[in-house]
Design brief:
Helix content is 52%, strand content 15%. The chain is built from 17 helices and 15 strands. Strands 1, 2, 3, 4, 5, 6 and 7 form a seven-stranded mixed sheet that branches. A four-stranded antiparallel sheet has the order 13-14-8-15. Strands 9-12 form a two-stranded antiparallel sheet. Strand 13 and strand 14 form a beta hairpin. The relative contact order is 0.07. The model has no long low-confidence stretch (mean pLDDT 94).
Length: 563
């Protein structure tokens, strides 16, 4: 699946919209990157920009934006209320989907290196990208601000991680980091009392509340040996929060920043606030997500609330999102539109119509048209997706069969596995057609000069290899899906055994059909060793799939006769 990272550069200009637009235009010019938000501040004289996209493209867009900012912003003339040290003050990268923090750190270092070497700007790496422990905290890197950087960067202990150990007077210093995704999340209460909302916020936020001797509200504040107040920690890690009253809605809210949703996910924060509010005689009525949220956060929430009901977690994305929205009351104050609130869905808006989004009739009509794509590869992936969907259905039906209540987790795990396979196969339906288009694009490259001919030949070879790998992935996934059907024939709801059997037939068809496409796509491929390896493994998968389908159908027939 596509890897996505977010980038949130802060530029030291919040007044001149001409400069701001010139910077953001650099981002919008890069394919594979979507500009999500531009937030200029007059008083701070600072603009926060949010973009998201595939990693290499985001790094390229960020670099271009930093370069443009270095050309247009002069830090020698800059004044603003917010602490700052450079034309591009900070530039954090944030993992969003299908990418680890470790990988994101590598991209942050790649970006920092380019800024330092190509633009001659001193760079400090912070947060997870920090190369030295004392640089993890951004405040340490930025201490002294722009005015103190000329001296700071020359000190051995503060030698920049990348770029010159001499201040670029016009552009200043930039901090490049990698941090976790931050979610702004508000929880609604059935009270207008800010004091009660604050009390609940202090119960849950990591910092907690000030410790007092005697009465918890009026007692003397306890201080440590340095004279600083001592705090009683709250129950949630990586959470900041306060209580406030929202005039627009006439209710008090707990306003939270979830600074690491892998530590405290949205659903955990919601449930904990419900508990603490209830203990204080207050009820939670709903909540709202401010800004965007990764898809995984919504899916995890849906699964969490289904598990509390002892229901199967192996349902579709849309159903999981629906459960999450209703469980947390995300639509209480205003409608919750997944296409506008979930990052991956917002990005997908630009990808055009997918085959898998068509109606069944539309897909069939498109396949039957005179266009060569979608063809056998896409149909094989689609057949496999339908097959594993049947197996998954049997698992879900089995999970809430009367008298089998204690087995819900057993079947839920099978259904989750089936859903994951289905999602990848649906992705491959469109990817097979895209791989065909890549070959056509390669053949359309110019071939007048020897250099052009060589580049065209290489592009055709690489596109052909990719077109072989896609149906091969379909083969492997279709064969893997047979485990779901096999298990459901053996252990699932007896009334649905034939559904699992049909699923196995679909999987066998998909394996054989995809293998045909592997072989025909290899025509003209020069790297014979590459194809031979895939061909031999493909033969093994095809043989195993035919054997397994035969065994599954025998079991189905046996169960039908014994019914």
């Amino acid at each position: 699946m596509k890897k996505l990272i977010e980038c949130v550069p802060n530029f030291s200009e919040g007044k001149d919209m001409g400069i701001i637009k010139s910077i953001t235009a650099e981002i919008e010019a890069v394919d594979g990157v979507k500009l999500l938000d531009v937030d200029p501040g007059q008083a701070t004289n600072r603009t926060v920009v949010t973009m998201v996209g595939t990693p290499d493209e985001v790094v390229e867009a960020a670099f271009r934006a930093v370069k443009k900012a270095s050309e247009l912003i002069d830090m020698r003339k800059h004044k603003g209320a917010h602490p700052r040290m450079g034309a591009t003050d900070v530039c954090p990268l944030v993992p969003v989907a299908n990418i680890t923090m470790e990988e994101t750190v590598e991209y942050a270092h790649k970006l920092a290196k380019r800024i330092g070497e190509e633009l001659g700007i001193s760079v400090y790496c912070y947060e997870n990208a920090a190369l030295k422990p004392d640089r993890k905290n951004l405040a340490n890197c930025r201490s002294g601000e722009y005015e103190g950087m000329a001296e700071k960067v020359t000190k051995p202990e503060w030698k920049p991680d990348f770029g010159p150990a001499k201040l670029n007077e016009k552009s200043g210093v930039t901090a490049v980091g990698a941090r976790d995704f931050l979610v702004a999340y508000n929880i609604n209460l059935n009270t207008t009392s800010t004091r009660r909302a604050n009390a609940i916020a202090f119960d849950v936020r990591e910092k907690g509340r000030v410790k007092r001797s005697g009465h918890p509200l009026t007692g003397k504040i306890v201080k440590d040996e340095k004279g600083d107040p001592v705090y009683i920690p709250g129950t949630l890690k990586a959470v900041k929060g306060i209580g406030w009253f929202i005039e627009e809605y006439g209710v008090a809210q707990i306003s939270m920043n979830l600074t690491n949703i892998s530590i405290t996910p949205v659903h955990v924060a919601f449930d904990e606030v419900c508990k603490k509010a209830d203990a204080r005689g207050v009820r939670v009525t709903g909540s709202e997500l401010v800004g965007l949220v990764p898809l995984k956060a919504m899916l995890d929430a849906g699964k969490y609330f289904l598990a509390k009901q002892q229901r199967s977690l192996g349902v579709s994305e849309s159903e999981l999102i629906k459960i999450a929205v209703k469980s947390m009351g995300l639509d209480e104050l205003k409608p919750f539109n997944p296409k506008e609130k979930i990052i991956e869905y917002l990005i997908a808006e630009d990808e055009g119509t997918k085959l898998v989004d068509m109606t069944v009739t539309g897909f069939a009509d498109e396949t039957a048209s005179e266009s060569p794509a979608p063809g056998g590869g896409s149909v094989s992936a689609y057949v496999a997706a339908l097959g594993v969907s049947l197996g998954t259905m049997v698992a879900n039906l089995s999970s809430h069969k009367r008298g089998w209540d204690e087995r819900w987790e057993e079947f839920s795990k099978v259904a989750e596995k089936g859903q994951a396979i289905k999602e990848e196969l649906l992705y491959l339906v469109d990817e097979d057609t895209r791989s065909f288009n890549r070959i056509m694009d390669a053949f359309g490259l110019p071939k007048k000069t020897e250099e052009e001919k060589k580049a065209r030949k290489q592009a055709i070879e690489e596109a052909t290899k990719y077109a072989i790998q896609i149906p091969f992935r379909v083969m492997k996934k279709a064969y893997e899906s047979m485990e779901v059907m096999e298990e459901m024939v053996e252990k699932g709801n007896p009334a649905s055994v034939t559904d699992a059997g049909v699923g196995a037939l679909c999987a066998r068809t998909a394996v054989i059909g995809a293998f045909m496409n592997v072989k025909i796509n290899a025509e003209g491929l020069e790297d014979k060793a590459f194809f031979e390896k895939i061909y031999q493994e493909g033969l093994e998968i095809e043989t195993a799939a035919i054997k397994k389908e035969t065994e599954i159908i025998k079991q189905v027939e046996k169960k039908i006769k014994g019914a």
